[in-house]
Amino acid sequence: MELQTFSSLHLRQRVHYGDGSQATQAHLEQPKVQAARPHRTMGTRLQLYNLKVEYRKGSDNPADYMSRHPVPAHAPTKNTCATKVAEAYVNFIIQNKTPKAMTLDETLKDETLQKHRVLKLAHEAHQGITKTKALLREKVWFPNIDRQAEAMVRNCLACQANTPETHNEPLQMSDLPDTVWQDVSADFYGPLPTGEHLRVIVDEYSRYPVVEVIHSTSANSVIPVMDKILSMLGIPRTVKTDNGPPFTGEQFSKFAVYMGFHHRKSTPLWPQAKTTAERFMRTLGKCLRVAHMANIPWKQHLHTFLREYRATPHSTTTSPAELLKCRIHTKMPSVSTPLGPDEDLRRRDRKAKAKMKTYTDTRRHT
Question: Rounded distance, CA 150 to CA 272, Å?
Answer without folding.
Answer: 33
